[in-house]
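no rush on this but wanted to send it before i forget. what follows is a protein written twice so to speak, once as letters and once as structure tokens for the fold. mainly i need to know what kind of three dimensional shape the backbone takes. thanks a lot i owe you, the record is right below.
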Amino acid sequence: MSLVGRWKIVEAIRFNENFEHEWVPVETILADEDIDPQDKSMYSSFMDFTEDGRVLNLAPLPDGVSQEEIDEAVKAGQIELYDGYMKLTEYNWKTENGKNYLDTRIKGEVLGEEVSPWIEIPVIDGKIEIMTFRIAKAE
């Protein structure tokens, strides 16, 4: 499965009332009035997988921010724009032997053995799972 293209978050792992992990649709999370608006903005972000092996985590610009404020933030290096969106993070991805991998940039070792920062990106029912998110191709 080619990952090239735009992907949006459709589910996220949350704790339920029994402190167990469960997958919750993003619509449910966004409708919850107890969740901080800044946290909600994370669920409105999406990922662009580029042909050159980059994963760009992008978000819409905040409501009520003027073009002048955006231009000043870009000039000051506070934000970076990509395709009209704010670039939150950038990672790398690759395909090897028919499997897709994400570079977490996490380095280290376990019991003296170096651990690869590359993790496989599982595909489940046409969606991919990255960390605590299930992501589907945007239509």
In short: Residues 69 and 75 are 10 Å apart (CA to CA). The mean pLDDT is 91. The first helix runs from residue 26 to 31. The first strand starts at residue 5 and ends at 15.
